[in-house]
Amino acid sequence: MAQNSTARQMPAVPTREYKGNPRQQTVHKTQSDAQRVAFSNMEKSFFCFIGAISLVLMIMLVSSQVELSNSSQFLQNINSEITAIQTKSSDLTQEVNELASNDRLNGIAKKNGLDLSESRIRNVTK
């Protein structure tokens, strides 16, 4: 079987040899070998300022979330009170309508010896 390898088909690239003084050759240091530069006071102050601002914003965010939660709870309490008052109001309205019904009033009138005379009733309209 014949293997058609592209690595064998590529021509070899000639390498250059450095003919200078070995002392003049520069050695490239990687970043881990290089000496790190210390932060200046201005940079330290800037990073502290950014950190302080971030801390203040985080505290404000948590505070606003707590305030929002408290306001939401207060609103739910008010809504439940409104619902209870509306229910009580509708119950009282129904009770007033039952107590003011014509049948009930006629029954009480007959019990007390009163009679209803149609000739003495006047309808007033506006």
Automatic annotation (TrEMBL):
TM annotation in the entry? 46-66
Compartment list: Cell membrane
Query: Is Hydrolase tagged as a keyword?
Result: no
Membrane topology summary: Single-pass type II membrane protein
A GO biological-process term: cell division
Q: Which segments carry the region annotation Disordered?
A: 1-31
Q: Which UniProt keywords apply?
A: Cell cycle, Cell division, Cell membrane, Membrane, Transmembrane, Transmembrane helix
Q: What is its main location?
A: membrane
Query: Bias regions of kind Polar residues — which residues?
Result: 22-31
**Which HAMAP family does UniProt cross-reference here?**
FtsL
Q: Which family does it belong to?
A: Belongs to the FtsL family.
What does this gene product do?
Essential cell division protein.
Descriptive protein name: Cell division protein FtsL
